[in-house]
């Protein structure tokens, strides 16, 4: 028995390298196969501790962190496999750098999923979605910067010396960075003053369209022609902005030109009938409504119709405008009046 044991031990000793490789491969495979189970189990334990009675938040916590934590265990298995066979400072350094990247990834995922709850903002509150995205982007960049600094430090560079060098070189790039800083500050102004949010239809000094994104540097607008235009935040913040999405009512205004031969009584009857129609129209706001004889034009007696529809959505407003035009035309025709058209009378004098 002792001879068998000695033989086995001698075989293992003679083939230690092979057994280390086999052991490393087995460990790596085990970690890869079990990584999802291990990561889910650990995350569920932490989720129960952090969110005791909030099942939805627990599920969100697990889902947002599962990928980076799962990948961590795969990397850990690979590191152990390498350590069994190639003990090296370089392997440890690479492992630390990968861990820093995974931590940054996990933090970014967690912030993206929970920034709204940190700010006490609901995801359904459209006016605050822009603020959530903006702050989330800033926090992500801060996390990335910290990650880069830690990686640079891990690679052996002197952070203090690097920062000193940046301070000296910073003077050279400060002028170039002015626009970036200006855009960042303007981005804060846009997000927190909320002249518009993502999804609003706006008119600026140079463009009209729907806001599709607001980042730290720029605002992206889809124009009526369906092209996408990106404007620096500083330019947007310094321009006058008309937010069409916040309109509560829309103006209907047009002139009707009748023939000069139209009697006063008929003119008054047309005005009265148009007023009555508008008053009874549920899509028209009575307050501020005006139908008046406004001008003796070159070739027509002009009646001005001025009122507001209660349809802020543009397509619905145009439907109301369309109905008003048809009904006003019908009223004029039913009263026997005639529309004027631009004309010029030429008189030839005989000598």
Tell me about this structure.
With 351 residues, this protein is of the alpha+beta class. The protein has three domains: 2-164, no CATH class; 192-245, SH3 type barrels, CATH 2.30.30; 247-334, Alpha-Beta Plaits (2-Layer Sandwich). Helix content is 62%, strand content 15%. It contains nine helices and eight strands. The longest helix has 35 residues, at 16-50. It is elongated. It starts with a helix and ends in a 17-residue tail after the last helix. The mean pLDDT is 81.
Relevant terms:
8 strands, 62% helix, 9 helices, 351 residues, alpha+beta, 3 domains, three-stranded antiparallel sheet, five-stranded antiparallel sheet, elongated, 15% strand, Alpha-Beta Plaits, SH3 type barrels
Précis, in short:
Helix content is 62%, strand content 15%. It is an alpha+beta fold.
Tell me the β content. Answer: 15-25%
Summing up helix and strand content along with how strands pair, one would put the structural category as alpha+beta
- C-alpha-based Rg, rounded: 37 Å
Number of DSSP strand runs? 8
Please tell me what the overall shape is: elongated
Elements, N to C (H/E): HHHHHHEEEEHEEHEEH
Main sheet summary: 5 strands, antiparallel
* Percent range of helical residues: 55-70%
